[in-house]
């Protein structure tokens, strides 16, 4: 096995039972929901125990510096960004790594 990739938007949608594109449910769709963050933390921990790499793709680490910090503190191996979010994401990761 080469590793795992967490799709944070899909995981959030699954964990919360909320369609991210639904205006009716948009207020409960949050990458900061404690259940979502715990699932991400658990996934990273399990991957580390198994000795495989784990990454995340999603918008939150580029939009929220504190989310990037959370991922760095959990030990994420890689984070993918959309081209329009790349520079913000890199800056957030660099700041998070300085604080860890």
TrEMBL record:
Q: Which residues form the PEP-utilising enzyme C-terminal domain?
A: 1-88
Keyword check for Endoplasmic reticulum, yes or no: no
What start and end residues bound the annotated signal peptide?
A: none
Source domain of life: Bacteria
* InterPro entries for the chain: PEP_synth, PEP_util_C, PEP_util_CS, Pyrv/PenolPyrv_kinase-like_dom, Pyrv_kinase-like_dom_sf
Q: Any idea which UniProt keywords this protein has?
A: ATP-binding, Nucleotide-binding
Q: Does the keyword Isomerase apply?
A: no
State the similarity comment. Answer: Belongs to the PEP-utilizing enzyme family.
Q: What is this protein called?
A: PEP-binding protein
């Amino acid at each position: 096995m080469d590793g795992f990739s967490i799709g944070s938007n899909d995981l959030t949608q699954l964990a919360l039972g909320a369609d991210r594109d639904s205006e009716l449910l948009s207020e409960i769709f949050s990458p900061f929901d404690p259940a979502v963050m715990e699932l991400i933390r658990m996934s990273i921990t399990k991957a580390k125990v198994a000795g495989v790499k784990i990454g995340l793709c999603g918008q939150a680490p580029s939009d929220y510096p504190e989310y990037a910090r959370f991922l760095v503190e959990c030990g994420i191996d890689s984070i993918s960004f959309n081209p329009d979010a790349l520079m913000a994401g890199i800056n957030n990761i660099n700041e998070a790594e300085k604080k860890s």
